[in-house]
Specification:
Elements lengths: L26 H4 L5 E5 L2 E6 L4 H10 L2 E5 L2 E6 L3 H8 L12 E7 L5 E11 L2 E6 L4 H7 L7 E3 L5 E5 L3 H8 L13 E6 L2 E6 L8 E5 L7 H12 L5 E3 L2 H9 L34 H4 L8 E6 L9 E4 L2 E12 L4 E8 L9 E5 L5 E7 L9 H4 L10
Parallel strand pairs: 3-13
Antiparallel strand pairs: 1-2, 3-9, 4-7, 4-8, 5-6, 6-7, 9-12, 10-11, 11-12, 14-17, 14-19, 15-16, 15-18, 16-17, 18-19
Length: 391
């Protein structure tokens, strides 16, 4: 199962019972007769609201957008929380300080990528893992035997405010409590419109941004939404579906679980070797990863004439050598971009290859490194505050 959110998905829809998945508590503020919904981590999300996607894209890049996102926090707490997390994640967590987040991957026993997300340490023995798409809570429970821990769903819906104006907006929203001192991947509890909520300086767009984690039934969700809109509008903030987020996350080199990465590839093949701590001791999948080729199979592809789409074949001469996992038009670069997954490692970067779309047409393409935009990640870290010109 993939979560593509490509242009064709706006037409490829089915009717499904609304009781099957979790509804958003913000639906009263975002509902639209034009809404196309997707499902991610068992939650509904708006992948399209009838908006002009290009206009929203430039609002994100030049001002700010508010997103209602479906990523799902899972709480792991108890006396054995640390040794349990050391077992299930490939990233060392014992040295984490409260108020910090780490990108962390969970591998299968065979060394494949099962889940990626961000882990936060809220206290000595209390953690939240904000998972991507997939049945991760069940997987955690299956591995919890022998550990004195509790695995619970805090029922936290997440909002993201992303874009260059996000710092000013969050500062106003918290009466100045959030400022430059909250570093990238920093987190903490802040009062927003009279409600105490967890906030992290993270996101899914490659822009300067923040994520706000609701506190289940304790949160007045509509009041929170209205407060953020009220403080954000003077700075040009609007709300948006996740279609724009999908475009921006691919430009920024952010991978989607079950779409770009999955259990059939190792984190090395996904280009995620820096997040695998092989020297930390045993963890699920470590034995399988020992001695594995650490060269990446996942790279970027650009095409001047067409937008790559999932399933497109990459040809070297007439030989299929890879395929596209997801593709979008890049407004910043003015061309089509996508993730290219190769069948075998090789010196692909810089190669001129052929993109074969599902309709059989052929188009010249170039293999590039990722991210496609801001390769030094200065924007998301706050080192580049330049407002980009619209191309």
């Amino acid at each position: 199962m993939k979560n593509l959110q490509e242009a064709s998905d706006l037409e490829n829809t089915v009717r499904i019972s609304a009781r099957r998945f979790e509804e958003s508590p913000f639906i009263e503020r975002t509902d639209s007769p034009h809404m196309i919904r997707g499902v991610y981590a068992g939650r509904y999300l708006a992948i399209y609201l009838g908006e002009d996607v290009t206009e929203k894209y430039w609002t994100l890049r030049q001002k700010a957008l508010l997103f209602d996102v479906p990523e799902k926090p899972v709480e792991i707490s108890g006396p054995d929380a640390v040794p349990f997390l050391e077992k299930v994640f490939s990233r060392k967590v014992a040295t984490m300080q409260p108020g910090r987040g780490y990108y962390a991957i969970a591998c299968t026993p065979q060394g494949g990528v099962f889940m990626d997300g961000v882990i936060f340490r809220l206290g000595a023995n209390r953690f939240w893992y904000v998972q991507a798409d997939g049945a991760f809570e069940t997987w955690l429970i299956a591995h919890s035997g022998g550990f004195n821990i509790s695995i619970t769903d805090p029922q936290s819906r997440v909002l993201q405010i992303q874009g260059p104006a996000s710092l000013k907006i969050m500062s106003v929203a918290t009466d100045g409590a959030i400022n430059e001192t909250l570093r990238y991947f920093g987190a903490g509890f802040y009062t927003i419109g009279g409600q105490k909520l967890y906030v992290s300086r993270t996101g899914f767009t490659g822009e300067l941004g923040y994520e706000i984690y609701c506190d289940g039934a304790n949160t007045d969700h509509l009041a929170l939404w209205d407060h953020l809109i009220a403080v954000g509008e003077p700075h040009g903030m609007e709300f948006s579906s996740t279609r724009v987020m999908t475009i921006r996350r691919i430009e920024a080199g952010i991978l989607g679980n079950l779409t770009d990465i999955d259990m059939t590839m190792t984190p090395f093949e996904a280009g995620l070797a820096p997040f695998i701590d092989m020297d930390k001791g045993d963890f699920v999948g470590r034995d399988a990863l020992l001695g594995k080729d650490q060269r990446s199979l996942l790279m970027g592809l650009t095409c001047q004439t067409q937008t790559p789409v999932a399933g497109s074949v990459i040809l070297d001469q007439d030989e299929p050598v890879g395929f596209i996992t997801a593709g979008v038009p890049s407004p910043t670069l003015g061309l089509g971009i996508g993730y290219a997954r190769f069948h075998e490692p090789g010196d692909w970067i810089g190669r001129a290859l052929t993109l074969q779309l599902p309709d059989g047409s052929h188009h010249p393409a170039e293999i590039v490194d990722i991210p496609f935009v801001d390769r030094e990640k200065k924007i998301v870290r706050g080192g580049d505050r330049t407002i980009p010109e619209r191309t």
